Structure formats: C-alpha cells, structure tokens
Amino acid sequence: MKIALIGYGKMGKTIEEVALQRGHSVELKIDIDSLGEFTKENLQACDVAIEFTGPHSAKSNILNCLAAGVPVVSGSTGWLHEWNEVENTCKVTNGSFLYASNFSVGVNIFFELNKKLANLMSTRKDYEVSIEETHHTQKKDAPSGTAITLAEQLLQDIPGKKNWVNQHSHNSEELTITSKRIDPAPGTHVVKYSSAIDDIEIIHTAHNRQGFALGAVLAAEYIHNKKGIFSMKEILSL
C-alpha cells in the first residue's frame, strides 16, 4: 500500500519503520513544516492515511482525508466530543474510517480483560475501583484516551459509578483517574480494586512504541478497500 502519514513525530516515524518492514511505502509525510503538501491531490495518490496528531487538529485532518476519498486510520485522542461530525461525514461520503484510543494488540486484549473483571466485580460493593495512567511529559492530553476507554467500560458494569474525574475523589459516584507524566514512560495503565482485606490489579505496561505502530499499520491494511466505520475489535477478532 501507499501510505500517507498525517503527523510525523516520534509515533509517525515508528509507524513508517513498521510500514516499510511490512512491504508498504510512505508517499506523504505531513508535519508542522509540510502543511502545504496536505492537499487533496497528494492524499489521492495514497491508498490509506494514518493520522496521529493532536486533539485540536485531528477532526479536520480526518475530514480532509474523507473528503479526498482516502480511507483513514486515526489514533489521536482528546477530540471525541466531535465524533458525530466525523461519523456522519464518513457515512455521507461512503468512506472508510477506523479509530482506536490505543492500537496496541496487548492493550486491546487488556480492554477485554477490563470488561470481564468489571463484570465479575459488579456485585462486590466492598471494593472501590480506580484507574492510574502514566505517560511521558510530551503527551498533550490527560487523562489518556486509553484511560478514558477503560473508565467508560467500568461505568457500564460497576453499579453506583456515574462518571469519571481526572483527580482523586471521595464521591462514591465518581470514578477516580490519576494521571502522571514522567519521562520516558511510553504508557502504563492500572485498574485497581481496593478493599479493607486486599487489592486486585490488572496492569498493562508498554515498553516502546512498536506495539502501537504495528497495530496502526494492521488497521490500515484492514480498512484498505473497505467501506464503513471500524475498530480494533474487527482487526483482532475480539
């Protein structure tokens, strides 16, 4: 495939490395210094776009790809309050779009473990659940998109929890997410159930960016020549 990389920072460069290893080519690389090349014509010379930027530019980047008729994979977080516009545009243009808060195969298995454990703990009122996430200091949003996904899963199963907050809370209806920014951590997420008797934890720790990059390239391979809105569940058959 011919790939367009929208966002060519550390993650973009790692995605390029993985894409080349898998026999693809990167035809377009867009960063702050090459925005003039982010044109419809250049996009249409590519088979698929992979978008990893920030919360303020993600939506417009995705819409530009859909307008050009190019399938787009996005891993940007912090923009999901604008999801409906992207979803509607994808449907109107008969486009192809795949979003994941985290493309790591291990993290997506972790999501499934989180749902299973939440179901098992749903009747255990003596346990208090919380989330902690740790990332490098260059991460632009807090809490992480992965932590938000974990929290939304918990809210569906844990009775009495109404919403999550990105601070320690003594309100029993609020789910605490604690965010830490420490270099050079690529990402650790902990879901913890605490009681007076014991603690139960599930933890995912990323060692590098390779897992995220591989998942993004697998996603691009999956949506190439497909129409619709997809997630990592389809790719991993979860």
Question: What is the structure about, briefly put?
Answer:
36% of the residues lie in helices and 24% in strands. It is of the alpha/beta class and 238 residues long.
Describe the structure.
This protein folds into two domains: about 130 residues, 3-Layer(aba) Sandwich (Rossmann fold), CATH 3.40.50; about 100 residues, Dihydrodipicolinate Reductase, domain 2 (2-Layer Sandwich), CATH 3.30.360. It is about 35% helix and about 25% strand. The strands form two sheets. It has a six-stranded parallel sheet with strand order 2-1-3-4-5-11, sandwiched between helices. Strand 3, helix 3 and strand 4 form a beta-alpha-beta unit. Helix 3 packs parallel to helix 4 and helix 5 runs parallel beside helix 6. The protein is elongated and about 60 Å long. The protein starts with a strand and ends with a helix. About 40% of the residues are buried.
Describe how the helices and strands are arranged.
Elements: E1 2-6, H1 10-21, E2 25-30, H2 40-44, E3 48-51, H3 58-67, E4 72-74, H4 83-92, E5 96-99, H5 105-121, E6 128-135, H6 145-157, E7 163-165, E8 174-181, E9 188-194, E10 199-205, H7 210-223, E11 228-230, H8 232-236
Distance between the termini: 25 Å
Considering the protein shown, what is the CATH homologous superfamily of the largest domain? Answer: NAD(P)-binding Rossmann-like Domain
Q: Tell me the β content.
A: 15-25%
Per CATH, which architecture of the largest domain? 3-Layer(aba) Sandwich
Number of separate strands = 11
Mean pLDDT: 94
User: Main β-sheet, in a few words?
Assistant: 6 strands, parallel
Strand order of the largest sheet: 2-1-3-4-5-11
Structure classification: alpha/beta
Please identify the top-level CATH class of the largest domain.
Answer: Alpha Beta
**CATH topology name of the largest domain:** Rossmann fold
Number of helices: 8
Count of separate structural domains: 2
Assign a percent range to the helix content. 25-40%
Uncertain stretches of 5 or more adjacent residues:
none
> How many whole angstroms does the radius of gyration measure?
19 Å
The shape is elongated
Order of helices and strands: EHEHEHEHEHEHEEEEHEH
